[in-house]
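From: lab user (bench 3)
To: helpdesk
Subject: output format question, protein + WT7

Hello, I'm new to running complex predictions and I'm not sure whether the block I got back is the full result or only part of it. Here's what I submitted:
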Amino acid sequence: MTNIGSYADRLTNFDWSLAERELGYRKGDPINIGWYCSDRICQLGMAEKKALIWEDFHGTSKTYTFGDLRVLSNTIASYLTGLGLAPGDRICLFLDRVPELYIGFLGILKMGGIAQPLFSAFGEDSLFTRLDNAKTAAVITQRKHVAKIRKILQQLPELRHIIVIDPDGPPLREREIGFRLDQAPRVENFAVHPTTAESPSVLHYTSGTTGQPKGAQHVHYSLISQYLTAKWVLDLRPDDLYWCNADPGWVTGTSYGIIGPWSNGVTQVVLDAGFSTERWYSLIQKHRITVWYSAPTAIRLLMREGTAVARKYNLSSLRHLCSVGEPLNAEAVLWSKEAYGLQFHDTYWQTETGSIVITNVPGMPIKPGSMGRPFPGITATVVDPKTFEPIESTATVGLIALRPGWPSMFRTYWNNRVTYEGKFKNGWYICGDRASLDVDGYFWFVGRDDDVINTGGHLVGPFEIESALLEHPAVAESAAIGKPDAVNMEVVKAFVALKPGFQPSDELDLEIMNFIRKKLSPLAMPQEIEFVKSLPKTRSGKIMRRVLRAQEWGEPIGDISTLEND
Ligand code: WT7
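Helpdesk reply: Thanks, we reran it on our side. This is the complete output you should expect:
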């Protein structure tokens, strides 16, 4: 028996108040995610239960109980308050996947701050754009990442504190302060800030086609969706050992790498290390992991290694597998059945939706290649791209649209109400993805409806890459697109026109790649640079990435009547 039971039954008379009741929440009560993920679990008698089993690259391991989570998040909350940080302040977590990242997230929420997690591999430009946009008041980081912050500090007058969790070494500088969680006096009791349903909780930056990344702002009430989807889709149960591959720099790593499991009182494993087939399988074997939330790129990498490697390990503890972030190809679903005796369940959602919205719930027959059906309480359809009316016929491609109003939906883009409002058409929230529906109501993903590049499940904005390319002295103009890739689905390819006096060369190629890797991130780094004389533009001077993309993918170019240089 699964937690959700019968999908059909759950659709009838579904109401989110069911999750409210399970959490003991009544409308108008304070609701604080940090409290729900630690204090409440202790109140339910699970203070001694393991919450986090953490391991790093070297095999160092640490274990924290829910009681530890409670006290240590209090300790961080109280420390932040002591620094003069106040409810509503944006506090950035710029950390590898160390315990302080997970516990700090709860601590920030407990003192009423808005948690802004950022991927620690971000370079100074990516970091600057997001800290500047959010007017972030403090950053919690590690010594090894401080140099990147120092480079941009003078342009960030609002940034008051850089909290370094491993301060040993050369003296700290301007605005930097050391804080060691394991040495700080433990704070048994902290008056959790009485945030209410609509109080801002988390700010996650995500990329679009135009402009710099936008901060999707979530609220504490998102817990209702995150708790229930973790229970019904990930099928989390009290004795589970759960593992989520995602970094909390991305929404999967917070919604289902922190809030989902812990609000359900479930033990999770965190591995602070990159992908390696052997390491991953030994982790599953060692901890007897039962529920695994992964991503298609990782699954394709495991597929490459074959089933023989999987057989070398005892993976019999696995009970339920889920995937997110990019299309899960049918072959991957079939292969996982062969390799692990279990199928991966696809889940579809976005930074903006805050929780899973279309999915294969356990027990529902999986059609390999399909994303499944709407989660109960979610009204989803496919609409015509011009009229935004639902498409009645099946198998016709349109835009995925959701009826607004589920608990974890983002409430705005930070400081960008206009773009937020532009996401709604004809009473629907438009996800920006293309799909079709079949006769059984299953969704079939087709592709994105914009120029955003999805590499290994991570969205990269072409504008951000192009802006960074223009900072390189040799680059006159540029365009960034996604190019097909067998493992990552897409990788970044850049087209570059050089300034007079510069010649294409292998050295310049490498130099530009590294320039982007350092300024933005390894993911944003172009895997290929094509030097061109000029770029296709519209008469008004806008670069037509669509033309370059169609060439790369061998697709029809479409309407180019507005093209200038043809
Ligand atoms: C975009 C959202 C959701 C957490 C991680 C990504 C693509 C997501 C699927 C899926 C096909 C998917 C979409 C979506 N995407 N899940 N199951 N099948 N595509 O969050 O960074 O906001 O990206 O990822 O294009 O819009 P995100």
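A quick orientation on your result: The two ends are 62 Å apart (CA to CA). Let us know if anything else is unclear.
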